[in-house]
Amino acid sequence: MDYLDELIVRHPCLSVCRDSILEAYKILEAAYAGSGKVLIAGNGGSAADADHITGELMKGFVKKRRPPALFRESLGQITDAETADRLAEWIQGGLPAINLGGHTALISAVINDINGSLIYAQQVYSYAEKNDVFIGISTSGNSENVYLAMLTAKAKALKTITLTGASGGKIAKLADASIKVPETETYKVQELHLPVYHCICLMLEDRFFD
């Protein structure tokens, strides 16, 4: 049984999201295959989810993700064998992801110097490169700072993914893949977001790491 099938078995209510979850995965797969990165934003519990997703992508999730032999060889040219062996054993492969809510000094500067609604849009504008993807998380789908970041991402030609509640809100209308879990209360939406992004992260890890 693959991860998406297992997700639906464990959470049957998410069967309505199956196609959108698969589409989100395909967008992320293409981005990583093209050396892109993922920018993620949300507020409150959704900011915590953005941090959680970043953690699952940037190091081993269920796999060790050992680096290629070439990395050990490169280390051997610049340090002693013991240190090279230790670092090559410890370090894990990552899929580049940035939680835009994790930069206190930058966020406070944007709030103070520009406008608080731009805390994510400013970062998307500055970080965005070819093959990158923006993921906007909002239980209502109407968070203003996430919406402005979505607009910025689209203007910068990024693919976009949203994680929302059942209505989707205004950010879902902009997304290339919109995952609208079938709940409306904030905590219930967030409870379903976690297994969804765990599934996607597992699928990506399975695709890119032995």
Briefly say what this structure is.
The chain is an alpha/beta fold and 210 residues long. The chain is 53% helix and 10% strand. Strands 2-1-3-4-5 form a 5-stranded parallel beta sheet, sandwiched between helices.
Can you offer a commentary on this structure?
The chain has 210 residues and is of the alpha/beta class. The chain folds into two domains: 171 residues, Glucose-6-phosphate isomerase like protein, domain 1 (Rossmann fold); 29 residues. 53% of the residues lie in helices and 10% in strands. It is built from ten helices and five strands, in the order ααβαααβααβαβαβα. Strands 2-1-3-4-5 form a five-stranded parallel β-sheet, sandwiched between helices. Helix 4 packs antiparallel against helix 5. The protein is globular, with a radius of gyration of 18 Å. The two termini are 18 Å apart. 39% of the residues are buried. The model has no long low-confidence stretch (mean pLDDT 97).
What would the keywords be for this entry?
alpha/beta, 5 strands, 53% helix, 10% strand, 210 residues, single chain, five-stranded parallel sheet, Rossmann fold, 2 domains
> Which sheet architecture does the biggest sheet show?
5 strands, parallel
Low-pLDDT segments: none
* Number of separate structural domains: 2
- Name the CATH architecture of the largest domain: 3-Layer(aba) Sandwich
Main sheet: strand order: 2-1-3-4-5
List the total number of helices: 10
E-strand count: 5
Distance between the termini: 18 Å
The helicity comes to 40-55%
Radius of gyration, CA atoms, in whole angstroms: 18 Å
CATH structural class of the largest domain: Alpha Beta
Assign the structural class, choosing from mainly alpha, mainly beta, alpha/beta, alpha+beta, or little secondary structure.
alpha/beta
Beta-strand content estimate: 5-15%
Mean pLDDT: 97
Give the ordered list of helices and strands. HHEHHHEHHEHEHEH
Shape: globular
Q: Say what the CATH topology of the largest domain is.
A: Rossmann fold
Superfamily at the CATH H level of the largest domain? Answer: Glucose-6-phosphate isomerase like protein, domain 1
